[in-house]
Fold these 2 entries.
Entry 1:
Amino acid sequence: MKVTVPKLSFIALSLVMASSINAANFGSPDTVDNTIAENAREKRTWRESLAEDHNLTFGLDYQALGLTASDPQSGGEDTASAGVARFYGSWNLVGLESGNTGGLVWKVEHRHAYSDLSPKEFSFIGNGLGYAGMIGPAYSDQGARLTNLYWKQKLNGGKTSFMVGFLDTTDYVDTYALASPWTGFSNLTFSTGGGSIGLPDDGILGLAVGHMLTDNFYMVAGVVDGKGRSDEPFDGFDTLFNDHKLFTTFELGWTASQDQIYTDNVHLTAWHLDGDTQHNLTNKDSGQGINFSASYFATEQLMPFVRGGFSEGDVALYDRSLTVGIGYFGLGKPTNNLGFAVNWSHVNDNLEHAYGVDDSEQFTAELYYNMQLNDYIQITPDIQYIKDPAFSNKSSTWVLGLRARIFI
């Protein structure tokens, strides 16, 4: 039976997806265009004027995340916090009459830690939880960086889109409605790739194409510089054309309609990352794998999902990963949403050997509640439970988190 999303679901989903006029976008809910559409939802006066007169839209926001753990590894830090300032926008320059619009998209950020360890380091890179995974990987101490700077072109009345330039692969790879680290789950295992895709950096040179094959079936493919760096983006011209280390993806999916591509969706994603890059875990081997995802609206507000993946090589955190969860949209009021999920993962064999640990399986659960207090502020309390963190001498830990977002 064909699944449709009633009016209430569309209102609630505004936290994670753009309006129907942006449904032709093949990017994730966290792409620049969709983030701007959400920011403008309740305050359309000057934004509408700017968009109508100059076809230019932009947004500013500031995000902060604080974490505290009950049982870090012995001698490890038990807190971490960081902030991220972002400026993003899009400027449509061609195809304004035909609807096959084309224009520039950009996003620049500054990521900075408040504590000795950033949330990205807190889980496993630094002396914190000893967990093979990442909580709040976007909250690092990287400093200034380029996340997006590309040309986006729609064709065939929006049935086809392509992006070329400096891309963020999480905008188009293995996306679903709760993948945004800003408004959805904070643990990487519940986000893009589920820990079983070896993702490159953001802001890297490449090309991605999305196309609706029929009213329901679609494909998304991309190829980008596997050695690109968001803090030195223009070095990508050298690494892409001289080193030829690539991250390639191909996704084939089904959706109830193009308007529901983030929610009523089933897809398979194949990926490959060449070896000998900064993303290798322990050696110079390449990595590849297959991921799957299925989500749908069972009721007007409840969206269950199942996601997972299999990988081999030296770039993904997990050889195998499986997640089940549910999103509750419009809980309390239409602009709030809740997410709950549990994950089982088998840690990459190369990581196990490098750290001298036995065959490692981890169980992770996360519950969050994203609340929009007004037109400018969101607050998201979060609780996670990690059983058998691979590199810790503790059997489990609780992690409490609080995210805040101020946006205009």
Note: The chain is about 10% helix and 45% strand.
Entry 2:
Amino acid sequence: MTNSNTNTAKKKINKSDILSTLRRQIITMELRPGAALDEAELCAKLEISRTPLREILILLSSEGYIQIRENRGTFVASMDYHTIRRLFQTAPMIYSAISRLAAENATSQQVDELAKHQSRFSKAMESQSIESMIYHNDCFHHYVGIIADNAFLMPSLKRLLIDHARIGNTFWNNTRAEQAEEMRQASKDHDQLIAAIADHDVETAVEITKMHWHASKGNINKYIMPDSIVEADDSKMG
């Protein structure tokens, strides 16, 4: 092989890898909500030309990770009060429907694959890597959606998971005494959901999902509605 061919092989673009990288950077908040994305800078960083990058950005926009604004540029999808409100409104419905269908449809091979995602989440939790934990939690719930196999619900689940993961970054990165136990319970919920899906136990899968969401919602509430400084000080004194 000539040097020219070798260089060409090295520069071969893997769009799937770049998509995965950008998705991960967005859900782990390495790319902050509302941040402007400079195409020239991304091209240099990702070693990709403008045309394939724009194809990737269009796909990310269709999935809800970014917003392409005409004559203004490209931005990471924003996250504000309205985002959190809509998350609270729709998450229980979507997560429950996805779990119900997953319990109805799952094959043994899919259950095994879901267990692998849970194993990665558990290892991330044990290593106390918040970024890795949030990423693998996202992968776990995304794969439940794959098992559910519903073309109408999957786009909604994907969009929901983006903001759920980003909000998760806010409260999991805050040190609280009860946080370790909450993480362990989240992992137990995953294990129980896998068992329910494997047994095709629809009602149990839905019930576990609702409890899992309720705990997550509680954490979000703690972050967006913290105790006042005075209340926090009084609690310590008491």
Note: Residues 1-10 have pLDDT under 50 and may be disordered.
